Amino acid sequence: MIILKIGGSILTNKDSVGEVDVQSLRRIASEVKSSLDNSPKDLIIVHGAGSFGHPPAKKYKIGEKFDESEYPQKRIGFCEIQNAVKKLNMYISEAFIEEGLPVVAIPASSFMTATNKRIVEGNLDSFKRYLQKGFIPVIYGDVVLDDELEFCVISGDQIIQYLAKNLNPDRVVLGTDVDGVYNKNPKTHDDAVFFDKFSSLDDLDTLEGTTNIDVTGGMIGKIKELLYLADLGIESKIINAEVEDNIFKVLENENVKGTVISRGK
Ligand code: ADP
């Protein structure tokens, strides 16, 4: 089984709110299809919320403490975000189904709950049952109820971590819009140094954020989730899904440039 994350940075245009990058989406759907045609495999897809989820999450400050009087406004914010990411998922599912890929959406907001922004509950039996029937379960960055904060946002990266911890996949792959992890943001630093392997946050020059609208932690958030998996002995790999054929190759276990996150040397 492979758990594949497709970053919101690839699927949406980060500069314009609520716009799908149709070209990338179609290309990725067709690469996934080619790989499954080539060699059948169990696949779970996780996608980010990109420019659909982050702006309303920021606007309503979901995940921050609030007074009781603000509850109705926060609640409608929760609904707005849930609906926005659902919309993105519908575009993605549509493109995959058009390719003939049997995707079925299993939204986190419908079955996961968190405590202080960490997923604590989420029964994955339906994932297993859909997989057994030959479906491709799809889950995405979403809002969920939180025992301490009422509501919170959970990233696709945290979901990857939760699924991998509980489902014991053979491989965990994350496609984003850079080749992998560098010692600093390669988009703003020409001299950033690339890591083939990454095993500690100490290797980063700065803990400087990532994209400016990402409320769920961007590259740093991603690395933290993956290091947690590495602690459990689960290796993962970040690759550039903007490079044509990378998703196909990685699904076929061919060599693709990227950063392997593991605690070993
Ligand atoms: P996605 O939406 O694909 O999950 P994000 O946009 O959240 O990904 O994170 C990827 C972005 O993180 C890259 O576009 C890059 O600009 C930024 N970034 C910040 N620091 C680093 C770093 N040290 N190494 C690689 N990318 C970084």
Structural class: alpha/beta
Helix residue percentage: 25-40%
Remind me, CATH topology?
Carbamate kinase
Overall shape: globular
Largest sheet: 8 strands, mixed
What's the order of the H and E elements?
A: EHHEHHEEEHEEEHEEHEHE
List each distinct ligand once.
Answer: adenosine-5'-diphosphate
Q: Can you identify the CATH class? A: Alpha Beta
Number of strands: 12
- What proportion of the residues form beta strands (DSSP E)? 15-25%
* Widest β-sheet, arrangement of strands: 3-6-2-1-9-11-12-10
Number of domains: 1
Radius of gyration using CA atoms only: 17 Å
- Estimate the mean pLDDT confidence: 93
Name of the CATH homologous superfamily: Acetylglutamate kinase-like
Low-pLDDT stretches: none
Q: N-to-C terminal Cα separation, in Å?
A: 25 Å
Structure annotation, total helices:
8
CATH 2nd-level architecture: 3-Layer(aba) Sandwich
Structure in words:
With 265 residues, the protein is α/β, with parallel strands linked by helices. The chain has a single domain, classed as Carbamate kinase (3-Layer(aba) Sandwich). Helices cover 37% and strands 20% of the residues. The chain is built from eight helices and twelve strands. The chain has helices at 8-11, 22-38, 50-59, 71-98, 125-132, 156-167, 218-231, 246-251; strands spanning 2-6, 43-47, 103-105, 113-115, 118-121, 136-140, 142-146, 150-154, 171-176, 197-198, 236-240, 258-261. It has an eight-stranded mixed β-sheet with strand order 3-6-2-1-9-11-12-10, sandwiched between helices. The longest helix is centred in the first third of the chain and has 28 residues, at 71-98.
